[in-house]
Structures are given as C-alpha cells and as structure tokens.
Amino acid sequence: MNITRENIDALNAVVKVDIVADDYQAKVEKLLADRRKKADIPGFRKGQVPMGMIKKQYGRSILMEEVNKLLQESLNKFLAAEKLALLGNPLPRVKEDFNWDAATLSFEFELGLTPEFEVDLKSKKKVTEYKIIATEELLEEELKNIQTRYGKVSSVDEAVLEASITGTFINEEKEINTKGTFLVKDLKGKKNEKKVVGAKSGDSIEFATKDLFEDTKTLEAILGNAEEEAQEVPDSVTLTVTDITTTAPADLDKELFDKLFADGSVTTATELKAKIKEDAEIQFKQQGDQQLLNAITGHLVENTKFDLPAVFLKKWLGTAGEKPLTPAEADAEFEKSENGLRYQLIEGKIMKDNDIKIDYTELVAYAKGFIRTQMAQFGNMNPEEKELDDIAGRILQNQEEAQKLQSQLISQKLLAFYKENMSFKSKELSYEAFTKEVYR
User: Fold this and answer.
1) Helix-helix angle 385-397:399-421, to 10 degrees
2) pLDDT tens digits for 403-424?
3) How far apart are CA 206 and CA 169, in angstroms?
4) d(CA 74, CA 84)
5) How many helices (H) and strands (E) does the chain have?
6) 3-state DSSP call for residue 373?
7) What is the pLDDT confidence band of residue 286, given thresholds at 50, 70 and 90?
C-alpha cells in the first residue's frame, strides 16, 4: 500500500491511496473459505461447494467490502500521523470507470484544510460594552407591580380603567370560544378603553382584533394562537364579560416585606427598592454580557480576514446531511453557515493560543451551580451537596445536555478572557434605551 498527499494550495489537498493484492488477498481468501464452509447451495453438500462458484457469487462483494475497510483504516491512520487540521471530512473522488480487477486499486480523496491566520484583539475599532442601569422610573413601576401582585382583589359592578376583566372571547366562524383575563389599561387606544369602561357582568362587547392590545401577544395568548400562527387570529371577536375586579395595592409595610423576604433582610421601602435595583441590575448584566459576547463574535468575524476552501466546503455540505443537496442548495447552506464556521475557527485558535480549556471537574461545578439556581427558584435554597452531585452526574450522562453546559461554560470563559484582553467603548443607559438601541 502506498499513500501520498499532494497540496493543491494552502487550503486544498488530495490524498492518493494505492492498494495492491498483497494488502488484502489473504483476508479475502479467508473470508471466501469461511463463506464456503457455511454455503448451503442445492446440489452440493454443505461445505463442499466448489470454490470457483463461491468466488463467482461472493468474490466481488467480499473484495469491495474488505478493500473499503482497509482504505478507511489506512486513510484515518495517515491523516492522524500527518496531524492535518481538516474542515469537513475527506471527499472521495468518484471514478465512473473504476476497475476492481486492476493490479493496483487507486483511490483519491479531496481535503479541505484549515487556514492559518492571526486574531487581533487590539483593533482600533472598538466594541461597545453596555452598562444597563435600573432607573428610578423602572424601580417605581416595579414597586407598583409588587403592591398590585400582593394587593387585595375585590369584585366591582362596573369596569373602570384600573379594572381587570375576565370574560369569554367568541368568534363562531373561527370556532373560537375561550376564556381570558386582561387589564383595561392594556387595551390599545381610547376607543377600545371606552368600550370597556362602564361595562358590567353579562355585557357583550364587539372588538376588532387589529391593534386591540398594546402588546399583540396578549390577544394571541388569550386565544391560544402561537406567534407563528398569528394569521389565524380572526378580524373580530365578541367579549362577554363574566367578572370585573380591582386590586387595592398592598401597603409597603412589614407584612409585605416578610412575604417577600422571610429572612427579615428587608424592613423598609428604601431597602426594598435597593433590593429591586440590585436584582434587576444582576439580570441586566447577564443580558448585557450576552449582547457583548454577540458583538465581540461579530467584530472578530468581520475583522479577522482569512480564506476558506469554499469550493470544497460546498461539495462537502452537499453530501454531509441525510439528504443530498443540489449545488444551489449547498451554496445557500454555505452562505448561511459561513460566519458560524469562521467564528468556530477563530474561537478555536484563541483557546489554543491562550490555553483556555475546561476539565470535567469544572464542568461538574458549573452544572451544580446551574442546578442550585434552578432549585432556588422552586424554594430549595440549601440543597445537600450529594443531591447536587447526583443530579449533575445524571445530567452530564446526557450527551446533548453535557454539550450545552460545556458550550455555556466555554462562552463564560471566553467572555472573561475578552474583557481582560480587549478594550471597549463604555455606554451607560436604561434598560428601555438598551433594548431600543440593540434589538430594534
């Protein structure tokens, strides 16, 4: 057997594998002999079928199977020994006139090679790092929400602007008959509010569904329509009012503070507001960090220039999935996935060059932290260490879950690395301003 590699250019190579009879003949003969022993052909005693008949019936298929096994093993060993950084998998060059009877069986494989490049983390063009603050307006709004959530609910005879309305939404044509609850103040526009204010239990009100609520998802949730099925929302609905309530806000007193913080850590409205601010800005920081990582990813992809073996990758994408792709489909798939592939290469180089890695102990610790947070949300603030170990062990046995946690931990480590090694433009703004600037 002879294996050689020819570099076409910096990103493409061809491996040629020549296999001769000495490489496979003994194994093929043994397999044929085994097949002869087991062959049960009418007119011959078992094990006494002429070898010529066995070779004629099974020889080619056994030869092809054995050669393909030998080819795959030898190719894998060669690529490992050469320590080639490949993109995708080797692609066999198909020869329509391949001759299995030739003295030398020659096979060729196309390779896509990983490009060499450098990553500049000190670019003059800086990424913006947002510091999201909880404004006084937001804190006051959240205080009101808490007071409403823990307030005293009372039924009233007539709807007012501050009321909550429960009723049945009906559209016979679309076969909609569903119960829902909404706040009058969540309706969009004075026209809709006027239809409801003054209404009593038993009243029926006609609404056009377009622009009925400030948030379009409110109606979709009431009617049971998923966002992607929004076209199924009817043009109009009839609301039959069944219940009208108002909520008297809870007082900012010890009773409320103890409901919110049983450990007694909050005793005044000022302390409650400070706690709301602290919790909100922790959440804002998490969202800001995610946006920063996304921005860094885009920045690095845009500013790290290197070529890819595009022709090879499109051919590989055309054959890599369960269903073969047409050339046009492969081109579209490459265009869609190119930036993701570029960042994978950039990320891999950064991790290798800076010895950023995770071990199983770190992954277990990260998984336990994630589990602890989840359990706290359900009121279990102090789970036992053994319980955390057991749950983490079960989760990490699931390959998909383990991969997800590993990816999150790597992102966390990379973000910390970027913060230490890149400089950013800093911008402080409210959460509302942040969402408008970043997501709209």
Assistant:
1) 100
2) 999 999 999 999 999 999 999 9
3) 10
4) 15
5) 14, 11
6) helix
7) very high
CA-to-CA separations, 377 to 363, 370, 371, 372, 381, in angstroms, rounded = 22, 11, 10, 9, 8
Q: Domain 2-113 falls in which CATH fold?
A: Alpha-Beta Plaits (3.30.70)
pLDDT, position 225: 54
Question: Distance (Å, rounded) from C-alpha 326 to C-alpha 439?
Answer: 35
Sequence-ordered list of residues with C-beta below 8 angstroms from that of 350, at least 6 positions apart, any chain:
119, 356, 414, 417
- Beta pairing partners, 170: 177, 238
DSSP conformation class of 290: H
Nearest to 107 by CA among 144, 147, 64: 64
User: Residue 231: pLDDT above 50?
Assistant: no
Closest CA to 405 of 364, 373, 377, 374: 364
- Contact (Cβ atoms closer than 8 angstroms) between residue 429 and residue 437: yes
Helix or strand (DSSP H, E) at 87: strand 86-92
- pLDDT digit string (tens) for 343-355? 999 999 999 999 9
48 close to 149: Cβ distance less than 8 angstroms: no
pTM of model > 0.85: no
Give the span between the Cα atoms of 301 and 344, in whole angstroms.
Answer: 10
The rounded radius of gyration (Å) of the Cα atoms in the chain is 34
Q: Which fold has domain 152-248?
A: Chitinase A; domain 3 (3.10.50)
The helix or strand, by DSSP H or E, that contains position 284, with its residue range, turns out to be helix 269-303
Dihedral angle of Cα 13, 81, 108, 345, to the nearest 10 degrees: -40
SS3 119: coil
Residue 94 is encoded by which pair of tokens?
């198909």
Token duo for residue 345: 């290469």
DSSP state of 213: B
Tokens for 138?
Answer: 């937001």
Tell me the average pLDDT of the chain. 92
Domain range summary for the chain, segments of one domain joined by +: 2-113, 152-248, 258-306+356-439
DSSP secondary structure code for residue 134 in this structure: -
Residue type at position 434: F
Looking at the DSSP bridge assignments, the partners of residue 181 are: 166
